[in-house]
Each structure stands twice: as structure tokens, then as C-alpha cells.
Specification:
222 residues, alpha/beta, Uracil-DNA Glycosylase, subunit E, two-stranded antiparallel ribbon
């Protein structure tokens, strides 16, 4: 993953950001490469985000690390018992995930936080392989609509049994806290993304995000 260069637009952007930096991180040595996933390989919870932040994961080299979204995410994971500490500053800060694995729809920071469809498709094989390897998976928490759609497209909605056989299930609408059954007995739980656009406006609050991971814990513990 770290050596991937399939998307010229993303390669150019992540490297330009790493070279130009911003004033507050002028002394940092930016990662500037695809940001790998992170967590427990035996995890029953998978968290899917959108992409690394230009001055977050693209700087630190660890997903959801060094930005406001990560502050919200790891705080909630810690409260729910999925992380050993509530903060994430850099990739050697001692953070460990318990029964949780974090990935993203794409692994390079996109301009304007908006990946193109072909870039999502280029990165899809990494997500496919991760889901294959996470053989204890019980819950997927999707942070945002794109992650929600990606999880459904990748794993597939579970089909309900009826007298006539399997019944196709209509794709659920994305909404914070919405749930859907996926193949293999996996439950998909939707959440608004903890971006500043959502947290600064109050669209997503800490109790709302906490409830999502409390629900994930309930499902994992069965």
C-alpha cells in the first residue's frame, strides 16, 4: 500500500502538501505517502473513514492521527474500550487499538477531501483484502456516506429468508446511527464523519459519536 502510485493526481497532491507544509507544522517531516491502515488484526470492529487529512495522516503517517477528526474518533474509541488512550498525536505515541481496526476508502489525501470515482476504485482492492483478512469481523462503523456506500458495495447487504427463498433487501438510506445487516452476519452502523464541518456546526456531537461506538461494543459482545 505505502508504495502505491496508481493515482497521479493524488501522488502529486500528497507530495506537494508534504513539501510545502503549513506554518504550524513547518518543522515536521511529513509522511507524504499512502497512509496504511492501523489496528488489531483479530478485530471484530472495523472503522472505515474517507481518506487521510492533508496535514493529519499525510503528515504523521498514521490514519486519523494529528488532526481534529482523529481527536474525536480516538476519544470515542477510548471511552468505548477500543483504544488504550484517548489521544493520537503521532504514530509512535503509544496508541494501541483493542478489537478494532481502522481503514479508509482511499489511502492518500485528496485535494479538497474529495476523491474521484476512479481513485476510489483504484484503492478498492486494499479494502477488499483487509475485509478478507479480518475473519473475526462483526461490526463495521462507516464514518460518512462514502464509507457507508463502500461497505455495502464491498460486503453486500444480507438477504432475508422468506417462504419463497431469499428476498433482496433495499439499500438503506444513510443517516447517523442507521444500521444494516451485511453478508456473514456483519452489522453496518452509520455515523456522520467527525470532520470539522460536522463537529463545529453541531451536526455531530460527542454524545452522538459515543452512542455509535457504544452500539458497536454491544454488538461485538453479543
Amino acid at each position: 500500500m505505502v508504495a502505491c502510485s496508481r493515482c497521479p493526481r493524488l501522488v502529486e497532491w500528497r507530495e506537494r502538501v508534504a513539501g510545502e507544509k503549513v506554518r504550524r507544522f513547518a518543522d515536521d517531516n511529513y509522511w507524504g505517502k499512502p497512509v496504511p491502515s492501523f489496528g488489531d488484526p483479530q478485530a471484530r470492529l472495523l472503522v472505515v473513514g474517507l481518506a487521510p487529512a492533508a496535514h493529519g495522516g499525510n503528515r504523521t503517517g498514521r490514519i486519523f492521527t494529528g488532526d481534529r477528526s482523529g481527536d474525536w474518533l480516538y476519544r470515542a474509541l477510548h471511552r468505548a474500550g477500543f483504544a488504550n488512550q484517548p489521544t493520537s498525536v503521532h504514530r509512535r505515541d503509544g496508541l494501541k487499538l483493542r478489537d478494532c481496526y481502522i481503514t479508509a476508502v482511499i489511502h492518500c489525501a485528496p485535494p479538497g477531501n474529495k476523491p474521484l470515482r476512479e481513485e476510489i476504485e483504484n484503492c478498492r482492492p486494499f479494502l477488499v483484502r483487509e475485509v478478507e483478512l479480518l475473519n473475526q469481523l462483526r461490526v463495521v462503523v462507516a464514518l460518512g456516506r462514502l464509507a457507508f456506500d463502500a461497505a455495502i458495495g464491498l460486503i453486500g447487504l444480507a438477504q432475508l429468508a422468506s417462504e419463497e427463498g431469499a428476498t433482496r433487501v433495499r439499500k438503506p438510506n444513510f443517516a447517523h446511527g442507521a444500521e444494516a445487516g451485511l453478508h456473514g452476519g456483519i452489522t453496518l452502523v452509520a455515523s456522520f464523519h467527525p470532520s470539522q464541518q460536522n463537529t463545529f456546526t453541531g451536526r455531530l456531537t460527542e454524545p452522538m459519536l459515543d452512542r455509535v461506538f457504544e452500539r458497536a461494543r454491544e454488538i461485538v459482545m453479543g
